[in-house]
Design brief:
two-stranded antiparallel ribbon; four-stranded parallel beta sheet; 150 residues
């Protein structure tokens, strides 16, 4: 069952550790580790990689890897959205309302943090199970897609 969309916000202008999202550990970029773990769950229909245009070639090279093939979408942020103090919620809302997801059916949206290299496949599965178990009881685990798109 693939009912999840993942969103990775990875901009180049980090404040404390410059370009932390694009550092390499071993032979992979930092953001590839959490992306791989999310895709290994087989519950993510697509993962949206949101960054600036200068990283498009990097994205294209990663997309060619077997695990990522046909699973990644590139979202180019405008200059306003690349500023240090620009909040995440408007970016996520912009992605949801963009043309990227018009033909993709999904029920859940996960924020996949680019530097969360310790989050494993089982963690994503556990999070989704908790959300599914509690979705009819209450909404304390976040906001609905409808909230973001209004």
């Amino acid at each position: 069952m693939q009912d999840c969309i993942g969103i990775i916000l990875a901009r180049a202008g980090s404040r404390r550790v410059k370009n932390k999202n694009f550092l390499k550990l071993d032979s992979k970029y930092v953001f590839e580790y959490p992306m791989e773990q999310a895709l290994k769950t087989r519950r993510f229909k697509k993962i949206i990689f949101s960054t600036d245009e200068s990283k498009k070639n990097l994205f294209n090279n990663i997309e060619k890897k077997k695990l990522f093939k046909n699973k990644l979408l590139f979202h180019e942020r405008n200059k306003q959205m690349l500023k240090n103090k620009f909040p995440m919620l408007p970016i996520v809302s912009h992605i949801i309302n963009s043309e990227l997801l018009t033909k993709v059916k999904y029920k859940y949206i996960f924020m996949i943090y680019a530097t969360a290299i310790n989050v494993k496949k089982k963690d994503y599965i556990n999070m989704l199970n908790i959300i599914k178990k509690n979705e009819n009881k209450n909404k304390k685990y976040g906001f609905s897609v409808q909230t973001l798109t209004k």
